[in-house]
Amino acid sequence: MDTTVYRQEGDDEGLLAHPSTNLNVEKTIVRRIDWRLLPILGMLYALALIDRTNISIARVVGLDRDLDLGIGQRFSIVLAVYFIPYTLFQIPSNLLLNVVGPRKLLSFCVVGWGTAQLAMGFVPNWQSLAALRVVLGALEAGFLPSLVYLVSTWYTRHEVQTRLAIFYVIAIVLAGFSAFFAYALSLLSGVLGLAGWAWIFVIEGAITILFGVVAWFFLPGFPDHNEFLSTEETKIVLARVENDRGDSLPDQLTWEKFVAAFDWRVMAYSFMFLFGTISTYGVGFFVSLILRGLGWGVAESLLLSGPPFVFAGVSAIIFSRLSDHYQQRALFIAIQTLITILGWSMTGFAPSGGWRYVGLFLSNAGCSGTVIGILAYSSNNIVSHSKRAIVSAVIVSFGAIGGFVASYIFTENSAPRYLPGIIITIVTQVLLLMVLASTTWWFRKQNALAVRESMPEGFFYTL
Questions:
Q1: What are the pLDDT digits (tens) for 141-150?
Q2: Domain assignment present for 439
Q3: In degrees, to the nearest 5, what angle opens at C-alpha 329 toward C-alphas 307 and 176?
Q4: Who has the most CB within 10 Å: 11, 45, 192, 403?
């Protein structure tokens, strides 16, 4: 039976009426939402991460040699061109989400970039590979902010980070172990006349296309237009969000709202996310190359690249649960940033290869948890659907700039230690802590002001 809730003009009050319920009923509904949203979102984002970073694995198994990517800055160029359309199309893509709907837009994007990924298996030169990376960036643009935006519409503020962590952890763990799968695919070298690196692109691209088709049938919409909860259950979901932050129903985007969305707080979130993603992309793009530089062979480097991502997943879940439980964002972002600094310091300067490898565990765990925390921190301190759509896109677009920076600071000339890139990454983590301290101070000051002026119904910032 179709239980979609179609909102009529003037019907907001009826939808927001909170039916008589108890905590156990609410928990049951939230669990249903978890199972409907998080596995499919985690799988799709895993495919996005795999398809944008598997070029590094392909390079290790022969792409470098066949397309002459080791000459000059070619590899950095191929990595970096992805982020140009990825940055430019963030906001348009997120605004289109409300018009087209999550299922249609996201499914189209997944099938589209899967096709581009598959086509990479047949490129004759590095220029063609770079062109397809541009297409990949355009189609993946807006995907992460759309997922963050979608998740935030379903949950209360202090449920968001754990949910973001769950789908993000599913993604990074699968992406981490994709190196094993990619290595197995590379063993098909010579079959049908294709090189091993080509089989990585072809098979993984085909899998992405398949999941794009599956997403058409399983992706949920926004809470006020969903197809898996009853009308009464939908009212409970909307009322929970309304009681928490007062923006359960979409508002109309106007030019005034668009301009007003860009304030110093958004820039602060964006620069924090930029600094965090320099580290995550540094690990994602270069972990197998760093391991090669530590003395391991091709097979060992690919196999050893998986465990740091599992550790990062466990760490991110633990810190996210603590952050939601204690309703603190900045404190746990700061702790994980310090872990990132420690990890990169060990990888760059420890005397033995074993300790440098341990450093990759810490840096990956710290930065993975940090970017989740920043997304939750920003989402918690925004009110209204329209502003959330804009701000999430702006923040993630700065993450694309972080990826662009990482592409060029971990240079071919600095291999195998990549010390300049590691030093720059450490400096950016210090800058992240400085910006975080500034926002925390200002939010604390505004909350104290609201208390002094007796504003019981005012909006209080999440610290």
A1: 878 778 878 8
A2: yes
A3: 15
A4: 403
For residue 5, is it within any domain? no
Nearest to 235 by CA among 251, 224, 222, 250: 224
The CATH number of the domain holding residue 343 is 1.20.1250.20
Q: Which domain holds residue 47?
A: 33-245+260-444
Lowest mean pLDDT of 241-255, 305-319, 329-343, name the range: 241-255
The amino acid occupying position 264 is W
Cβ-based neighbours of 275, under 8 Å, separated by 6 or more:
402, 428, 429, 431, 432, 435
Q: Could you tell me if residue 240 is inside a domain?
A: yes
Q: List, for residues 30-52, the tens digit of each pLDDT value.
A: 889 889 888 888 889 889 888 88
Report which residue type is found at 5: V
For residue 88, is pLDDT > 90? no
Rounded CA gap, 458 and 97, in Å? 29
Q: In whole angstroms, give the CA distance from residue 422 to residue 286.
A: 11
Residue 304 tokens, joined: 């050893």
User: What tokens does 290 get?
Assistant: 């760093």
pTM for the whole structure: 0.74
- Whether 187 contacts 74, CB under 8 Å: no
List phi, psi (to 5°) of 227: -120, 10
Q: Percent helix, strand and coil across the chain, each rounded to 5?
A: 80, 0, 20
Question: If you average pLDDT over residues 110-131, what whole number do you get?
Answer: 93
Q: Answer yes or no: is pLDDT of 13 > 50.
A: no
25, part of any domain: no
Tokens of 82: 């992805």
Whether the pLDDT of residue 297 is over 50: the answer is yes
Whether 278 and 386 have beta carbons less than 8 Å apart is answered as no
Residue (of 210, 181, 207) closest to 196 by Cα position: 181
What's the number of domains the chain is made of?
A: 1
- Which among 74, 134, 79, 133 has a CA at the least distance from the CA of 412? 74
The residue among 165, 168, 180, 172 whose CA lies nearest residue 361 is 172
DSSP for 254-288 reads -HHHHHHT-SHHHHHHHHHHHHHHHHHHHHHHHHH
* pLDDT tens profile 233-273: 888 888 887 787 665 555 566 667 667 667 888 899 999 99
CA distance 164 to 41: 10
Q: Who's near 261: CB < 8 A, 6+ residues apart?
A: 386, 387, 390, 391, 394
Residue 462 is which amino acid?
A: T
